[in-house]
Amino acid sequence: MADTTAKNLSAQQAWEFLSGHPDLQVLDVRTPGETARGMLPGARRISWGDPAFELELSRWDRSRPVLVYCQGGYRSRKAVEVLRSLGFNSVLHLHRGMMAWRWAGKAVTDGESGTNPSQ
Hints:
32% helix, alpha/beta
């Protein structure tokens, strides 16, 4: 059976990893309405309920790490299973999602126009 786990990161740990790894792919699995209120820097949205979810992810680079998050953690934990099943080896999960990110006072970008803090 394939390992479907990911390393859980706090908001602070995720920020540090994001800042130090320009090759990091950031996946936001929330809805367009949720992402309109802000996203993590550099994130790309593929909504968890999107019928093309797996197809879209199949275009991502499996050799690069992926940080996945949603609003509170449920959908992103499900997305971790899909990422692992598609062969992504380095999968990181933002524990408690965007709620934790905002509670920690971390920066968000408008919609899908963000860049990584290191850029």
